[in-house]
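Quick question about two entries, pasted in order.
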Amino acid sequence: MSNAAPRTTGQDHLWSVDEHLEDILATVRPLEPIELQLLDAQGCVLVEDVTVPVSLPPFDNSSMDGYAVRVADVAGASEEFPAVLDVVGDVAAGQAALLHVGPGQAVRIMTGAPLPPGAETVVPVEWTDGGLGEGPVTGMRARALAPEGAEGHVHVYRPAEARAHVRAKGSDVKAGDRALEAGTVLGPPQIALLAAIGRGTVRVRPRPRVVVMSTGSELVQPDEGLGSGQIYDSNSFALTAAARDAGAIAYRVGAVADDAEILRDTIEDQLVRADLMVTTGGVSVGAYDVVKEALSHVGDEDEAGSGIDFRKLAMQPGKPQGFGSIGPDHTPLLALPGNPVSSYVSFELFVRPAIRTLMGLDDVHRPRTRAKLTAGKALTSPKGRRQFLRGMYTDGAVTPVGGAGSHLVAALAHADALIVVPEDVESVEPGTEVEVVLLG
């Protein structure tokens, strides 16, 4: 992260959504690259092109279990007039192709085995009698059960064209080709390719470590009994899951009570494992908004360049927000509102792009589209606020889910999109085309 402190514009300034996001993305920087073992690099972003050192496959090999033969020896073969060839041995996957196929000869060959010298094509075993002399077979008998199958004669009932059922050397990728480009996110197929070309390690930007903590003395952990005035802590679970979904390694910290000193100590303890910190709750204007109390002046006693700026945004839900850095390494910290929907919407708009930026990705935003609003009545929106309503998107149409309340967790669970109502729009009629942020 940059050492520059977040810009401040006064307590009365109403930030736009775009201004706040711009400030975050201008401050957060991609993590430094490291060399990782393949499986540890899953989900990470490559920082350099990977070139193929050896062709795939590295040799001509069979795509079928069958017999390696010469084309001329099976030309015109049929069930009535089969070609009868001498079987001179076996070649299995992992064996060097030392056998030579001469005129009138065949070699039993297994899938993945190198094509022997002299062989021009492969006849599937189902086109033969398998050396048993009893008509077409469905497969080979195991060598351990019938070692004599590697010698004798085989009847071939169908002809085969040149190079049939042969995987050519370099038919996948050739030595010198570019296997993967810098900027590629390594998923299972990419890791498979790296392993296939012999790469055991790769240089990537690591997955960011994100620490999530919720605040509030009223919060109780799931599976515990609720007392009077208490609620279960859902935010820390939602945001930790969302951080992992975004590509981060996320750690959830149990809810912290409304005590500024305890919160500061907890944050300090967690900095050792954080590339990004996310808090939820305690950022509004109440007497018990502990995050604001604990962090508003943290830059006064911390290293130069650190500090948290608490802001009001022209959005609904999610008006109160905080952003800055903390600790000796200037670890980015985003302080989100405590209402569940406000918290989740804020994560999608601000935290997820920050995580994707730390990863080194070029496209850090959720996809957006236009959709026709399907609703029983017009949607209303406060003047001067950009509103984000939960919705379900299907085939170019979007339907609101639940109301505008920022506490409606059940409605959020059924939404797969956010309906965006611009600041200058106070009412949206059914049938109107609206902007939609796709969450799934």
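Here is the second entry:
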Amino acid sequence: MQAPTRDRDTFGQGKPLWSRAIAKPAVEFGPITLPVLAGQIPTDLRGSLYRNGAGRLQRGGQTTHHWFDGDGGILAIHFTDAGATGLYRYVQTQGFQAEAAADEYLYAGYGQMAPGPFWKRWGTQPKNAANTSVLALPDKLLALWEAGNPHALDLDTLDTIGLDNLGYLQPGQPFSAHPKRDPKTGDIYNFGVVLGAKNSIQLYRLDASGQMRQQSQIPLPRTTLVHDFVIAGPYLIFLIPPVVLSVLPILLGTKGFSDAMEWKPQHGTQVIIVDRNTLTEVSRFATDPWYQWHFGNGYQADDDSIVIDYARYSNFDTNQWLQEFVTGFPKTQASSRLFRLQIDAIAGKVLSNEPLFGLDSEFPMTSPNDIGHHHKSLFFCYKANPKNEEYFDSIGCLDPDDGHTNLMTFTKGCYPIEPIYVPNSQGSGWILTVVFDGNHDQSTVQILQANNLEAGPVCVLELPEIIPFGFHGTWKSR
């Protein structure tokens, strides 16, 4: 069973099939019971999948300057004994509401500048797009963004409650989009990049309910971009890329953040190791230049060395690709490979830094039960045919210790997003992903066996509207 084919003129005729997922702003829907197109929902899959991403890239006949500028839209899939219920809502930020009323862009963002002459842009603050990730707490869902406070939403209805300072954040204080939860203690670690006369990383340690337990600051070597970090045994690890942000053009209103960043490989990548109990710096050192958006996981090996799996780019061309992505025709070549970095945290040196998988890959992740500990499975999106596809068409599982892979490529013209691992009672786990079918202009939720991706989905659920490619998600068990 397939959904009716929509008018192709509306969804980016002449553009690559994948681009049809972003050719039009997402439409809110639900709550609605989701039809099962194939298979059946596993009996032990009970809880909620939440996903965040840039749901709206167009407004008033204009397209955003960068993928990161799109307004945040949240997809929730609630799995109960009665079946699966889906709903999609835009985060009702102040900026979203003002621009919806005006039907035009009014604010600066990561890539775009505020409208009007440059002197009217002086000192303007970027819009909090609430579009990057989600953090599920016991009593609320947080929509996360890089450079400001999170927005709180209702866990069931996705109604926006409003900006949430969690009881300790100052207005505009950054609470980044990649928090890490310790599977043993439930503690949540996060950070925010503070730029100013003295650049620093603000560190946060929260309990499982989101209450602050500890804060600290460590200095940053330069004005730069830090998107993610990793827990590795007793440490928090930051890899600071050789990207330099020129603040003056932003303050003068002549450039947006994205265009004010420059690749400076002579700085190398700086490795910063932080004791996660005291939130104090252990060591830092420089190594070869590269760029990474995302980490898969990290842990402390038996010989006390630190092992980190991540998606590595050779330079910062990925940022230009992300800017061109919104046009449907990216020209810049930017690919990443899964790498394994091994370091001596105390001596402050790299022991090895080697590729793990030979194809263009991104969005690495592992089981939430393995965060900060040794992992035998790394899940990720990849391109099975990089010469023929500009977007990910496959999901893979890799054992980084022995190189064994378990791979699944979707039907041509179908594109998955970041795989979310859900533990189950058998210990094998499920992988949940949202797949856009460009052949039929349809989005589905697909459930796969984590230890047998090659067998294909055990269940496919039909979504009533197209879900644009998202960034990050999470699972909350019931």
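Reply: The mean pLDDT is 94. Helices lie at 94-102, 247-252, 317-325. Hope that helps.
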